[in-house]
Structure formats: structure tokens, C-alpha cells
Write a structure and sequence with these properties.
single chain; 375 residues; alpha/beta; seven-stranded mixed β-sheet; three-stranded antiparallel β-sheet; 12 strands; 38% helix; globular; binds pyridoxal-5'-phosphate
């Protein structure tokens, strides 16, 4: 079975919206059915379900080259970052949080919420479709506790220069949190190579699963000195201690978890991640280079306004085009059977391993028919 055949939506539509939500595979459908079957046949198999949560933890760890003890299994990226933020102390001199203007809104909300606890949040503004590294150098100083950056911007597809920013932050004694939601499943993401202190992501998009499952990576050496105030029984050293008089956080990154794990989403997440693993990151990366290259080339040839940087090292799997009536454009494309999305005035086109060059050609032809909305 070809990879595309595992995604029934392609029988009817051209799906180019993986930056919002990965397409549904037969593998993930079967995983949800397996969850219902286990529930029906076994009653309340919590041992099995906790085991499945550990499998997801191992998969996340493998995906980013971390140790499973450095991974918290969360219900959303927001939950992971909120738990981390709750463990930071902003009462001293080092109370500054540096946030890039390419962040997903949830990241901004979480850091601004810490202002009530003494944090000073400083934004690093964009210069058009990029954020020059010098702007981070200007913003990060000896009072900076953490630098919060996105790997690839959800709005325009632009990729930040993570190693350069990490270097600046570490030289100033600040930690780095990387939001890799828009890169996981599209390229190799290695916490050791990137040297980030924390990393967050989830399975909804290019990891080909569904809502309700995400994770937070925390570098081993940092965990034991961080005490989240966002807690729950699954963040305790012994989940089944059931001691209402105590709070004994797990010695591992599990201390950033909270309550009952999202079991149905874990079944789906395991299936989605397994599919990605079976395809291999090299194959995915090379297909995405080909597809994003063809989208850029087709768009530029027709004079459309490319927002994403042209240089392939400066963008991710998401290519964006400026439109002055983007909602209408998304609607027209949908009527023609092509699924995309928008943010700001940008049309977001986000292929994955299941797409091919005929999808791209069909998209470019369709955009050409509506080019008055693009130029
Ligand atoms: C870069 C990025 N970070 C975070 C999120 C949202 O994460 P969650 O809803 O799991 O908190 C998204 C979702 O679109 C995203 O694109």
C-alpha cells in the first residue's frame, strides 16, 4: 500500500493543510477502534493504558533524541509550557522572558500571565518575514531567565536561526524553550544538536495524529531544581501513593504532567508517530524539499506574492502567499477540492509526505484562476 493510499481523504480532495491538522490515516482510524475495543473487552485496563502512555513517552524521546525521563506527556503544548512556567522563579534579578514575535499566541499568553508573578516579558519584533539574530542579541541580557522561540512560524513558515539564538542565550546564562510544533514530523529535531533546554510539541499536525496529546522535553540536569505549582497525581513520584497530605514531585520530567492521561489520543498518537518513524525522516525531508520547492517556483513564476523566505534553509514545510481576500481564496480552493488555511492575510499551503507534484500543479492552476485575489 502506498503512503497516500493510507489517507482516504485523497480519494476526494487535495489536502494541503498539515500545518493545522495532519490528514487522517487508516492507521489512526484503527487505533481509535482499538481503544474502544480494549475498553469494551477489558473493562478498565488502566495498567495497559498507563503502559501506552509510557510508549508515547518513549516515542517522543526517540523523536527528539532525548531520554524518556526528560519527557512529560501532556494534553497540549500549552499545558506543558504552563507547567514549566509555573516552576520558574521571577522574584529575583533574572526575571526577564524574551519572546519572539513569531510565537503561536498560546506562548505569548502563558508568558504574559507570568507578569503577575514578577516576570518582565520582552518581545523580539520581526523585520518583514524574518527576525534577524541581532534583534535577539539586543533583547537577551544578564537578566534574561528564558528565551522562548518557535522553530518555524505558524503564520508565515519562516524558520528561526535556532543554533545562533541558543548560543546568544547560553552566553548570557539564559535557558531556551523551543516550540517545535511546526517542525516535528517534517525534519530531524535533535535536542542535543540544537542544545535547547526545553522543547515542546504535539501530534496534531505533521505527526499525523489528533488533538489531546503533546509533550514537553526538559534537559535532565535542570529537572530536579524546578518545582511546578501546576500539579496533579500523575506528576507525583508515586502516582498511586494517594497521599492527600503530600506533594512529592516525580524526579523525572513527569513532574510537568498533571491528571489522567489522554488515553484515546495516546492510541492515535502512537499510530501517527509509528507511521512517521516507518517512513524515515530523510525520505520525508527530501519529499518536502521537492514539494515546497515546486510550490515556491510555481507561485513565483506566476507573480504571486511569496511571504515565506525563498531560501529553503529559512523556511519549514509551510509556504505562505499574500492575499488581499484570503478567506475568499480559501473558500474558492475548498470548492475546487483543495484544502488550505489562512493566518493574517497569508494563504497557508502545507504539504506532507502524502502529497505529490500533481497536487502542487492542481493548486497552482487553481490559484491562477483566482489570481486577482493574490496579486
Ligand atoms: C507552533 C505552535 N505551537 C503551539 C500550538 C498549539 O498548541 P496547543 O494547542 O497544543 O497548546 C500550535 C497550534 O497550531 C502551533 O502551531
Amino acid at each position: 500500500m502506498s503512503i497516500r493510499d493510507r489517507f482516504p481523504i485523497f480519494q476526494k480532495k487535495v489536502y494541503l493543510n498539515s500545518c493545522s491538522q495532519g490528514a487522517l490515516s487508516t492507521d489512526v482510524m484503527q487505533a481509535y477502534q482499538a481503544y474502544l475495543r480494549d475498553w469494551d473487552e477489558k473493562g478498565s485496563p488502566w495498567e495497559l493504558w498507563v503502559e501506552r502512555s509510557e510508549t508515547a513517552r518513549q516515542q517522543f524521546a526517540g523523536l527528539v533524541n532525548a531520554d524518556p525521563s526528560e519527557v512529560a506527556v501532556c494534553t497540549s503544548a500549552s499545558a506543558g509550557v504552563s507547567a514549566l512556567a509555573s516552576a520558574l522563579d521571577f522574584s529575583g534579578e533574572r526575571n526577564k522572558v524574551v519572546v519572539s514575535d513569531f510565537e503561536f499566541p498560546t506562548i505569548g499568553h502563558i508568558w504574559h500571565a507570568q507578569e503577575r508573578r514578577g516576570a518582565q516579558v520582552v518581545h523580539v519584533p520581526a523585520a518583514g518575514n524574518i527576525i534577524p539574530v541581532e534583534r535577539f542579541a539586543d533583547a537577551i541580557d544578564d537578566r534574561t531567565q528564558i528565551v522562548s522561540i518557535t522553530h518555524v512560524c505558524f503564520r508565515n513558515g519562516s524558520r528561526l536561526d535556532v543554533p545562533a539564538i541558543v548560543d546568544i542565550a547560553h552566553r548570557r546564562g539564559a535557558w531556551v524553550l523551543l516550540d517545535s510544533y511546526q517542525t516535528l514530523g517534517t525534519q530531524t529535531v535533535d535536542v542535543k544538536t540544537l542544545k535547547v533546554d526545553f522543547l515542546v510539541g504535539g501530534v496534531l499536525k505533521y505527526l499525523l495524529a489528533s488533538a489531546g496529546l503533546a509533550f514537553l522535553y526538559a534537559r535532565k540536569e535542570l529537572i530536579s531544581n524546578l518545582y511546578p505549582t501546576s500539579m496533579g497525581w500523575f506528576s507525583q513520584a508515586n502516582i498511586f501513593a494517594m497521599d492527600i497530605y503530600a506533594d512529592t514531585p516525580s524526579p523525572t520530567a513527569r513532574r510537568f504532567e498533571s491528571g489522567t492521561p489522554p488515553v484515546p489520543s495516546i492510541y492515535a498518537g502512537i499510530a501517527g508517530m509509528k507511521l512517521i518513524q516507518s517512513l524515515g525522516m530523510e525520505r520525508i525531508e527530501s519529499r518536502l524539499r521537492e514539494l515546497t520547492g515546486a510550490i515556491k517556483e510555481g507561485a513565483m513564476r506566476r507573480g504571486f506574492n511569496l511571504v515565506t523566505p525563498v531560501d529553503p534553509s529559512r523556511h519549514g514545510a509551510l509556504i505562505t502567499l499574500r492575499s488581499h481576500k484570503v478567506d475568499l481564496l480559501v473558500k474558492w480552493l475548498e470548492q475546487d477540492g483543495i484544502i488550505t488555511s489562512s493566518r493574517d492575510n497569508n494563504l497557508r499551503i502545507s504539504p506532507h509526505i502524502y502529497n505529490n507534484l500533481s497536487d502542487v500543479n492542481r493548486l497552482i492552476d487553481c490559484l491562477t484562476q483566482h489570481k486577482e485575489l493574490l496579486v
